[in-house]
Structure formats: structure tokens, C-alpha cells
Design a protein that fits this description.
8 helices; elongated; alpha/beta; four-stranded parallel beta sheet; about 375 residues
């Protein structure tokens, strides 16, 4: 949609070339004017110059944009002339930017600068109400990042070796996976969504937020301990495919699933006391078959509440039929399940004396 000229434009138009005026006419969705006080071009609406083979903004200097500003899928090497204030979102992804100098300092929506060649976030706005997406660049640190982000902060697939400079409050997810991190020092301490730090080189969880509102993903690292992990996780806690030899330091309360398979565990000491979903431990070095689980519960009754829900009914029947002494472990923990096992094996009509001998291993 072309703009509708107002009287204020005519005096200012002499400062713009025909090419610049055509650029504004074609890309403005709404109306553009030259602000007589600032000399900058204000947009009442959106500005969309996506995929226009631009290397720069043609010398136009923007002021305020009431909607969103889209300049992605170009060949921009600079943000010189970009708006000073954008009430909607600012998107400059898929360009050749090495710096954010010139970027708007006030953004009401999201700020998206992914898939450029950024080595620093210097020049970024310091507060963003929506998402801040800087993944797929060449960042080694987060120096210059916003201090506060209203929704997701995504810095994955860079070359980060530190989280120093990260925002300290994130209203959505914090995603720093697929980098070169060895520590979480510097990470935000308030995360309202998921915290995803998997596929790094972490040897410690020191610096992690102590409370995560959704999932905490630290799988596929080099962790040998969970010391430093958040103590309360409202979603899943995923620490599989590490080098864990102990669960000491793990959160004490996980509202959904706790997944720590494919490690080097030989004990459950330190495991959460409360898991709302399933407790996955199937590929550790000690034999975590149904029989192994039942024998472990027999020796360590305190772990029955975590382990028993991971055993299928059919496999439970098979194991108990081979080792009836396991019945006592089940009976002590869950009478309802105990009766189901008896019925499933056809032992529910067995006399009490014979059943007692089975449980005591006499038969």
C-alpha cells in the first residue's frame, strides 16, 4: 500500500532522492512522513523490505515505526539508518551483519537478528518486550545482550564459551544449547519457561537458575555430577547421555519426568524425592531390567515410589513368577498392585499358608 502524502511531506521531500521515495512508497504498509522536528522518516504502520537484495537502507534514516520493521533476507552489512523506535517487532535475520550498531534501542515486540555473522551483541536494545533471537551467528559471549527479555531468549548454535552478559530475567525460554559452554555461570536466575543447555561441553551445572518453571535440559554434555542443578523443576528434568556417576545434587522435586538414562550410575543416592511423571533410568551401567529394578527395590525400599511406576505390568508378572519373594516388596508398598499381580498370575485363590511360603522363599 502506498502512503498518502500530507502537506508536511512536501518541504521534506527535497532531502530524499527519487530512489529513496520509491523505496518508501513500495515498502511502507501504511503511511510515511518526514518528521519536521527530527528530519527522520516516521512510519505509521509496518515497513517491509524483505528479500530486496539490499546492502544498506539506501541512505534513508528512520525515526519511529508504529508497527513492525522487516528487513530480513537481504545482504545488509550495516543497520545504519534503522529506526530508533519500533513499537512492534524488528527483524533483521538472514543478512551479513557483523554488528548491531544502529539497531533500534526501543522495541515493543520481538528483536530477531539470527543467521547473520555477528560476533558481538553490542548495540542491541537493553530491554525487549518480546523474543530476542540471536541464534546461528558467531557469538563467543553475550556481552551487550538485553538485560531484560519479556519472552524467549535464544542464543543456540553460536560459538559461546561463556554466558556472561546474558539477561538476568527471561519471561519465556532460555535456549543456549549447541555451543561450547563448559559452565553456566552468568546464566539468568529467573526463567519463566524452559532452560535448554544441552549439547555443550558442560562439566558442571554451577550458575544454573535454582527454579525453572518448565523443562530443564542438560543432556548430551560431560557432566559427572548434578551439583548446582535447580532444586525445583516444574517440567521435565533431562540429564541423559552424560558421564554421571552419582545423582547427588539433583532437584528434590520434579513435577513431570526425570530422565537420566545412558550414564554411569551404580546407585540412586541423591535422586529426587518427588517425581510427578516417570523416572527413566533404562540404560545405565547397572542392569536396569525389570528384574534388576525389583531387586534394587527389595534392597533399597526407599526408592520404590520412584522405580515401581517405570515397570510394565506384563514384565512385573514375569519377574514375580520367577521370584515370588518379590511379592513381599510389592505388598509392602502398594496393596492394590499386589492384588493385581496375584490375580494376573492366578495366585489370588491360593491359600494363605501356601502364599506365605511363596513370599518367604520356602517353595
Amino acid at each position: 500500500m502506498k502512503h498518502i502524502k500530507r502537506f508536511a511531506l512536501f518541504e521534506g521531500e527535497k532531502t530524499l532522492t527519487k530512489k529513496q521515495i520509491d523505496f518508501l512508497d513500495i515498502c511502507t504498509i501504511g503511511r510515511w512522513t518526514i518528521n519536521q522536528n527530527t528530519g527522520l522518516v516516521d512510519i505509521d504502520g509496518d515497513f517491509d523490505c524483505i528479500d530486496s537484495e539490499l546492502k544498506n537502507l539506501l541512505g534513508v534514516k528512520f525515526g519511529r515505526v508504529s508497527g513492525s520493521f522487516y528487513c530480513h533476507l537481504n545482504q545488509l552489512t550495516t543497520l545504519e539508518g534503522a529506526p530508533r523506535e519500533v513499537e512492534g517487532s524488528f527483524t533483521c535475520t538472514n543478512n551479513k551483519l557483523t554488528t548491531l550498531n544502529g539497531a533500534p534501542q526501543k522495541v515493543g515486540g520481538g528483536f530477531k537478528c539470527s543467521y547473520n555473522e555477528l560476533t558481538t551483541l553490542e548495540g542491541a536494545p537493553q530491554e525487549v518486550e518480546g523474543h530476542f533471537l540471536c541464534y546461528g551467528n558467531k557469538l563467543t559471549s553475550l556481552k551487550g545482550a538485553p538485560r531484560k527479555v519479556g519472552r524467549d531468549f535464544e542464543c543456540y548454535r553460536n560459538g559461546l564459551t561463556t554466558l556472561e552478559g546474558a539477561p538476568q530475567k527471561v519471561g519465556g525460554d532460555f535456549a543456549c544449547y549447541d555451543n561450547k559452554l563448559t559452565t553456566l555461570e552468568g546464566s539468568p536466575q529467573e526463567v519463566e519457561g524452559n532452560f535448554r543447555c544441552h549439547d555443550n561441553k558442560l562439566t558442571s551445572l554451577g550458575g544454573a537458575p535454582q527454579k525453572v518453571k518448565k523443562d530443564f535440559d542438560c543432556h548430551d554434555n560431560k557432566l559427572t555430577t548434578l551439583e548446582g542443578a535447580p532444586q525445583e523443576v516444574s517440567g521435565d528434568f533431562n540429564c541423559f547421555r552424560n558421564d554421571l556417576t552419582t545423582l547427588e545434587g539433583s532437584p528434590q522435586k520434579v513435577e513431570k519426568n526425570f530422565m537420566c538414562f545412558d550414564n554411569k550410575l551404580t546407585t540412586l543416592e541423591g535422586a529426587p524425592r518427588e517425581v510427578g511423571g516417570y523416572f527413566y533410568l533404562d540404560l545405565n551401567e547397572f542392569k536396569w531390567t525389570t528384574g534388576g529394578k525389583l531387586k534394587y527395590m527389595k534392597k533399597n525400599p526407599k526408592w520404590i515410589p520412584l522405580i515401581l511406576p517405570t515397570i510394565s505390568h506384563d514384565s512385573l508378572l514375569d519377574e514375580v513368577s520367577e521370584d515370588p519373594t518379590l511379592l513381599k516388596t510389592i505388598e509392602d508398598f502398594d496393596k492394590v498392585l499386589y492384588n493385581k499381580v496375584l490375580k494376573g498370575l492366578g495366585w489370588d485363590k491360593m491359600g494363605p499358608d501356601l502364599l506365605r511360603q511363596l513370599k518367604d522363599g520356602i517353595l
